[in-house]
Design goal:
With 360 residues, this protein is of the alpha+beta class. Helix content is 59%, strand content 11%. It has three domains: 2-144, YojJ-like (1; 146-290, Up-down Bundle (Ferritin), CATH 1.20.1260; 292-360, 5' to 3' exonuclease, C-terminal subdomain (DNA polymerase, domain 1, Orthogonal Bundle). The two termini are 50 Å apart.
Length: 360
C-alpha cells in the first residue's frame, strides 16, 4: 500500500513538472484559459485510449502552445504523446466506461476523471465556466493555482523550515557535547531524530511547491537546498550510531522507514520516535546509551567512509576512539601516521568546540 501511494505521488509530481510555469504545455493551457474556450487533454496515446476514442482526426505534428490554443476552439479532446512534444489527435470524442465511479459534476471534468482512472494516464481539464485547470492522475484530482498563491504558501513553509532547522542545530550540537562527555540518553537521540524528520517533512512539502512553480521556483529551490544540505546524511549517521548491536546495514534503512511512516501525532511524541528506532519503550527514555562514533568521525575532514567504518569496527564506541592515541589509531588498516594524526586532532577539536558551545 505504501509503495502504491509513493508511486501515485511520483506520477503526480512528474505530471505537475510537465505543466509547470515555463513549459510550453503550461503556456498553451493558460492561452486556453484566457480564451475561455475550455479544453480536455490526454497526455499519452495507447490501445486503451484508442478503444475509447471516436471521431476527430489524426495530426501527429510538433506541439506548440499556439496550435493547442487553436485546436481547443473545436469540440472534443486533444491527445498528446506522453512527453507532450507532439499533438497526436484532435477533436476526439472520448467514451470512457460509464460504470467508473466519479464525483465530478460537469461533463468535461467527469470525462477527464473517468479517462484517467481507466487509462492510468494523466488528463488535464480546462474549465470554461469555472476558469480553472484540473489535473487528473489515476484517482487523484489536483487543481492548479496561481503562482503567486503557491509562492506565498511556499515562503511561509520556508520560514517555518528555517525555525525548525535552527532548533535542529541546537539539539544536534547538544547531542555532540553529550556524546563527548558520555552522558547520552535515549531521549537525547530520539529528540535529534525527531527534529531531523520534522525538517525533512517540511522540506518535502516545499519541494512539491518547487515542482509546481517550475521556473518561478528557482530561487526557492536554492534556499531549500542550502537549508537541508546534509540533513539526510545526518539522519542516517544518527541511526548507525545508535541502532542496537547485531543489526545489519539493511536494518538502518528499515529504521529510517519506520520513522518516516510515523504520523504527525506520533512524531511529536519522543517515546514513539524512540520506539520506531528500536531504542526501547517509553520507560527507557532516560536510559544511558553509547554512540559508535559515526557522527563525529564524519565531521573529520578528508576521512573516507571506508576508514570510518574500520575505525568504528576496531574501537567499538566513541569513548574508546576519543581515548585512542596516534599509535592506537595506526593499527587500523588504511590509517597511516598522517591520517592518524588528522583523526586525533580532528576529534580533539570537535570535543573542545562541542563542550564550549554547550557551556559558554
Amino acid at each position: 500500500m505504501a509503495n502504491e501511494k509513493s508511486s501515485a505521488e511520483a506520477r503526480l509530481r512528474a505530471t505537475l513538472a510537465s505543466i509547470a510555469p515555463g513549459t510550453d504545455l503550461r503556456e498553451g493551457l493558460e492561452r486556453i484559459l484566457r480564451g475561455r474556450t475550455g479544453g480536455l487533454l490526454v497526455l499519452g496515446q495507447d490501445k486503451t485510449v484508442e478503444s475509447i476514442s471516436t471521431g476527430g482526426f489524426s495530426l501527429d505534428v510538433p506541439f506548440t502552445p499556439t496550435a493547442l490554443r487553436e485546436l481547443a476552439k473545436m469540440d472534443g479532446a486533444i491527445i498528446l504523446d506522453r512527453e507532450a512534444t507532439r499533438i497526436v489527435r484532435a477533436a476526439v470524442h472520448l467514451m470512457p466506461d460509464p460504470s467508473i465511479h466519479t464525483e465530478e459534476a460537469g461533463t468535461r471534468h467527469r470525462t477527464a476523471d473517468r479517462v484517467s482512472r481507466q487509462t492510468n494516464l494523466p488528463v488535464v481539464s480546462v474549465s470554461q465556466s469555472m476558469h480553472l485547470i484540473a489535473v487528473y492522475v489515476g484517482d487523484t484530482r489536483y487543481v492548479l493555482e496561481d503562482s503567486g498563491q503557491i509562492l506565498s504558501r511556499a515562503n511561509q513553509a520556508l520560514a517555518t523550515l528555517e525555525r525548525y532547522k535552527l532548533r535542529l542545530d541546537e539539539v544536534s550540537g547538544t547531542l555532540s557535547a553529550l556524546e563527548i562527555e558520555d552522558l547520552v540518553t535515549v531521549r537525547d537521540v530520539a529528540s535529534v531524530a525527531q527534529r531531523l524528520e520534522m525538517v525533512l517533512r517540511i522540506a518535502r512539502e516545499i519541494e512539491d511547491y518547487v515542482v509546481e512553480l517550475g521556473t518561478d521556483g528557482r530561487l526557492l529551490s536554492l534556499q531549500l537546498d542550502e537549508l537541508v544540505s546534509g540533513v539526510d546524511i545526518e539522519r542516517e549517521l544518527v541511526v548507525r550510531d545508535y541502532i542496537p548491536s547485531g543489526r545489519k546495514a539493511r536494518d538502518v534503512m528499515k529504521v529510517l522507514r519506520e520513522v518516516e511512516q510515523l504520523s504527525s501525532g506520533e512524531l511529536v511524541d519522543v517515546a514513539a520516535v524512540a520506539r520506531a528506532m528500536s531504542l526501547g519503550a517509553p520507560e527507557h527514555l532516560d536510559t544511558a546509551i553509547t554512540p559508535r562514533g559515526y557522527r563525529l568521525l564524519a565531521k573529520v575532514p578528508r576521512l573516507p567512509a571506508t576508514v570510518v567504518d574500520r575505525l568504528v569496527e576496531h574501537f567499538g564506541n566513541l569513548q574508546k576512539l576519543l581515548a585512542a592515541s596516534i599509535d592506537d589509531l595506526q593499527i587500523v588498516e588504511g590509517v597511516g601516521e598522517l591520517r592518524a594524526r588528522s583523526v586525533r586532532e580532528g576529534l580533539s577539536r570537535l570535543a573542545e568546540s562541542s563542550i564550549l558551545e554547550r557551556y559558554v
